[in-house]
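debug: dumping io for the single-chain case to check the tokenizer round-trip. Nothing else runs in this session.
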Amino acid sequence: MTKAFEAAHALKGTLSNLSITPLLEPVVEMTERFRNADEMVDVSDVFPQYKDALERFRALAE
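debug: decoded output
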């Protein structure tokens, strides 16, 4: 899960630096779940929140 943690952590940092809070909140949750995981981590409850926030952000950018 190291790669998943590293990817989520990098995304968290980028979103934080850009102050994109609606996208940041679910990514923070995913990052914490991946942080010390030795096995597969279930983020199926959090990922839809991220996806919905991403769609709203994309709509604003159009």
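debug: round-trip ok. The CA atoms of residues 26 and 60 lie 19 Å apart.
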